[in-house]
From TrEMBL:
Database matches in Pfam families: RecO_C, RecO_N
Keywords: DNA damage, DNA recombination, DNA repair
Name used for this protein in its record: DNA repair protein RecO
Family label: Belongs to the RecO family.
Organism: Qipengyuania citrea
């Protein structure tokens, strides 16, 4: 395997003393996990943040071997991690993506939608401007994996929040039923913070 492509980093798990296992979503190869040497070091720590867009050079000698990756930062989401709502949204969408997509299956629509959603979260003046995109991304995830229907029509913030609430049991039942970690905790934290906007 040899892949050089832009990738959205969706998870980074410590491995050994200084490395990480990074999971990245690419347009043509889907979700790919790779070993990043020095990923917890001073130089790479700001690069291996979930939500970041990176240029990935991924290589493996065989399909059964965990690939090695060299990463270069393209777009950082780090500055928004100190803001409660954007940080919760980035944590949720990256955790969802990393947890439910099968490895090495291409989902170009999800890659484009996730990139657009992360850009919206980080460039919008307020969460009201990206909540609709979040609801659409969840619906697209359900549809791409065979559990959903049409793209929801959303007229306002209240309707977007209602759709998010309707989608949670579907996500829990169909997408996250087999995961061992509590990924929904990230969504529940985000939903609590979004609820404060309409109080």
């Amino acid at each position: 395997m040899h892949l050089t492509a832009p990738a959205i980093l969706v998870a980074a798990r410590p491995h050994g003393e200084t490395a990480v296992i990074a999971r990245m979503l690419t347009e043509e190869s889907g979700l790919v996990a790779a070993y990043v040497a020095g990923g917890r070091g001073r130089q790479l720590r700001p690069v291996v943040i979930p939500g970041n867009l990176v240029q990935a050079d991924i290589r493996a000698k065989s399909d059964s071997q965990l690939p090695f990756a060299r990463l270069e930062l393209v777009t950082s989401r780090g500055p928004w991690l100190s803001e409660p709502l954007p940080a919760a949204a980035i944590a949720w969408v990256t955790a969802l993506t990393a947890s439910v997509l099968p490895e090495r299956n291409a989902y170009p629509a999800l890659y484009d939608a996730l990139g657009g959603l992360l850009d919206a979260i980080c460039s919008a003046q307020a969460a009201r401007q990206w909540v609709e995109a979040l609801a659409v991304y969840e619906a697209l995830m359900l549809r791409e994996l065979g559990y959903g229907g049409e793209r929801p029509a959303i007229a306002n913030l209240g309707q977007a929040l209602e759709i998010l609430d309707r989608q949670e049991p579907l996500i829990a039942r169909y997408l996250l039923a087999d995961t061992r970690t509590d990924v929904l905790a990230a969504r529940q934290l985000l939903r609590q913070r979004l609820a404060r906007m309409v109080e």
